[in-house]
Write a structure and sequence with these properties.
The protein is built from ten helices and 13 strands. By secondary structure, the chain is of the alpha/beta class. The strands form three sheets. Strands 2-8-7-6-5-3-4 form a seven-stranded mixed sheet, with helices on both faces. A four-stranded antiparallel sheet has the order 9-10-13-12, covered by helices on one side. The protein starts with 22 loop residues before the first strand and ends with a helix.
Amino acid sequence: MYKYEHGGDIYSQKVTAEGKPFVDFSANINPLGIPQGIKKAIVKSIGSCVNYPDAFCRELAEATGAFLKVNKDYLFFGNGAADVLFRLALSLKPHKALLLAPTFADYEKALRSVDCEIELYALDKKQGFMVQESILAQLQPGIDLVVVCNPNNPTGLVCPKAILEQILERCKEIGATLLIDECFMDFVPVEEAYSFRTKLAKYKNLVILKAFTKTFAIPGVRLGYCMTSNKELLARLHEMGQDWNVSIMAQEAGKAAVLETEYLAKSFAYVEKQRIIMQKQLKQLPGMTVYGSLANYIFFHLAQPKDFVAQLKERGFLIRSCANYHNLGQGYYRIAVNAQSENRALVRALKEILNND
């Protein structure tokens, strides 16, 4: 039987033993919720659902391109970033790919679907799970795809810009495509945040993956996209699946989302403040090793108790165990940065568990 390994599973068990809804820290969604502008756009779009959606997402591409200051012809949209990821695998059909370990599991899942050989670059715990220049030694001819999640999932750490630039140049030399997943870059503090989308025109071997999901709190709408100046790849992306992969409601939601500048500024400031507070509180707990996430989630290690996830679930909290990630194992966890009241409640539960252990 297929086993679901991601966060956000609020369906297997909807309420606690006391009949209360769980507080979900396993999926990192913007705690400010869906902006009113997006809600209104979705409702307004219902009447248009009598028609097929635009297979080329032309209005959405124009709006998103203007928002990102990217050529609208570089954009391909899908039913969430995961949908785009699987289309990329089908379009590129790489023979051998290099992935970080740990990183998001669906890269490997998508690549396995096209029989791609996987090579792993192990992130060193002693180096705080940061990408080092040693990754360049693994970029040898025969590798035709490299995937860098930036900031990485589950660690929340960004790859040093100088190293990422060297990776991009090395990929060009060996004829490899570099896929940079920037789905969480929007939550990184301005001084550490950098997108490689300004390099798209120069490097046709560069693809950047993005999503509206986490930023605008609309995972249920399903809207993601990628950016590349490689016209041949963009054509193949359209060929590797159905034409109507982005609904009218999702397209209208995206068009409304890029207008939410005030919401974005408010939510990013809120998330950063709450993340810093939570990291400080977690570091004070016995046995807790907290890594320096810059995203809207926090990555940490806690050796004991072994039933940590179960104890939190009994108290009404869902968190993400990272035991299934390559190069991690038991004792590693990821929690979202939620609303202040929920964050405080989780910290109280953590103190209760660790003080009683």
